[in-house]
């Protein structure tokens, strides 16, 4: 069985052959992998900055954004059946009895750091022909989402952030009701930093919730990301093309900033512009390149005097996966072309090492194990 694996000791990324997994437990489900999305985390793993192979293995099979088809189920499986399309979650709980989040089924809030993540930390991932997992980690995707279901995992990041923000808004009693029902009724505004898949899916979620949304990203418009932003009813601003005086005017009244770049200098520059009582959500994981200079007094002064909130969020719960699958369906109805346009290419697994190591272009590149779905050109 083919797989794409990273060998940290020899610093190699290779296309390998490995044995097919077997159903050995009653609640096991065997899945034929159809597609796996490539993200920044995969690229970091392939540049050996991140990622840990399973104990006793010299390599890590990567891939954590997967869509597959169920091909075999154990005798205790009752929620998924052969033929279903499924999306697996990424993180698995730690084993410490005292980790309350993990014990309660929320490993995305694990406090010990001993969680594992498929394709990232301590467990092989999904960039292979078949995988076996427990039923509880699989979420059924409706067949009509076959072409876009692989976008579920990057959307779960916005879904978890959305869940957190809804809880947080309870602190503002005069606002909470409007924003929870429909942000539109309160002229709520949001800025998304970055026009990669996480940023664009986050913008879709914000627009769907009723936020007036703009996306602030590096490439000058027009580009594939800015086209998507305009198509979904957002506004695209190119970073570097807006003088600092105008920045305050454009972004100074913002209720929510959704950061999806992992560029800390940009994040802290924008944090300075955050309006009173607003929330800054950080989702990007910067690589540790050394300290940067920030005006910490100004930031702290603003955060306190303006009742601001900075929220970090990682991974997602089972509920967030279910909501993401529903929302992908809604986005597909509302913006069919824009949603599809997030997927730039579908390439053979043999091409994965080049994509992971080279400077891949486009928005979301997908490894397709399904020959009929492949395309090497923009869709
Ligand atoms: C993945 C998350 C994971 C995080 C940290 C992200 O790329 O989408 O599932 O928790 O990396 O490893």
**Heterogens:** beta-D-glucopyranose
On the 0 to 100 scale, the average pLDDT is 93
How many strands? 19
Query: What percent of the residues sit in helical stretches (DSSP H or I)?
Result: 25-40%
The main pleated sheet reads as: 7 strands, mixed
* Strand residues, percent: 15-25%
State the shape: globular
Compute the separation of the termini in Å: 28 Å
Low-pLDDT windows of residues: none
Cα radius of gyration in angstroms: 21 Å
Please state the structural category: alpha/beta
Number of helices: 12
Write up this protein.
With 379 residues, the chain is α/β, with parallel strands linked by helices. It is built from twelve helices and 19 strands. Strands 3, 5, 6, 10, 11, 18 and 19 form a seven-stranded mixed sheet that branches. Strands 14-13-12-15-16-17 form a six-stranded parallel sheet, sandwiched between helices. Strands 2-1-4 form a three-stranded antiparallel sheet. Strand 15, helix 8 (264-271) and strand 16 form a beta-alpha-beta unit. Helix 3 (152-168) crosses helix 5 and helix 3 packs across helix 10 (318-334). The longest helix has 17 residues, at 152-168. The chain is globular and about 60 Å long. The relative contact order is 0.15. Bound molecules: beta-D-glucopyranose. Residues 39, 41, 64, 90-91, 117, 120, 153, 314-315 line the site of beta-D-glucopyranose (BGC).
């Amino acid at each position: 069985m083919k797989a794409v694996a990273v060998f940290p000791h020899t610093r190699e990324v290779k296309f390998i052959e490995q044995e097919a997994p077997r159903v050995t437990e009653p609640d096991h489900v065997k899945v034929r992998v159809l597609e796996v999305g490539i993200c920044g985390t995969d690229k970091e793993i392939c540049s050996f900055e991140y990622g840990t192979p399973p104990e006793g293995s010299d390599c890590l099979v990567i891939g954590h954004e997967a869509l597959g088809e169920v091909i075999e189920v154990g005798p205790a499986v009752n929620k998924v059946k052969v033929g279903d399309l499924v999306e697996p979650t990424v993180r698995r709980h730690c084993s410490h009895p005292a980790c309350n989040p993990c014990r309660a089924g929320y490993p995305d809030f694990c406090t010990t750091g001993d969680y594992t993540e498929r394709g990232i930390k301590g467990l092989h991932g999904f960039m292979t022909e078949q995988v076996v997992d427990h039923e509880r980690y699989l979420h059924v995707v409706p067949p009509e989402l076959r072409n876009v279901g692989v976008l579920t995992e990057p959307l779960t990041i916005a879904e978890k952030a959305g869940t957190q923000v809804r809880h947080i808004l309870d602190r503002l009693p005069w606002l909470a009701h409007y924003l929870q029902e429909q942000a539109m009724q309160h002229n709520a505004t949001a800025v998304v930093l970055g026009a990669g898949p996480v940023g664009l899916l986050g913008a879709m979620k914000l627009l769907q919730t009723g936020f007036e949304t703009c996306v602030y990203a590096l490439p000058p418009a027009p580009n594939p990301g800015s086209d998507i932003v305009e198509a979904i009813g957002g506004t695209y601003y190119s970073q570097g093309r807006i003088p600092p005086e105008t920045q305050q005017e454009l972004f100074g009244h913002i209720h929510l900033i959704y950061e999806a770049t992992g560029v800390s200098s940009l994040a802290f520059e924008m944090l300075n512009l955050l309006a009173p009582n607003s929330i800054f959500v950080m989702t990007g994981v910067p690589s540790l390149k050394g300290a940067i200079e920030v005006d910490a007094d100004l930031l702290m002064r603003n955060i306190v005097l303006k009742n601001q909130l900075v929220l970090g969020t990682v991974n997602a719960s089972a509920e967030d996966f279910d909501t993401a699958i529903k929302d992908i369906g809604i986005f597909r109805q509302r913006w069919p072309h824009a949603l599809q346009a997030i997927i730039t290419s579908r390439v053979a697994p043999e091409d994965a090492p080049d994509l992971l190591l080279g400077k891949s272009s486009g928005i979301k590149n997908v490894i397709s194990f399904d020959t009929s779905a492949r395309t090497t050109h923009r869709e």
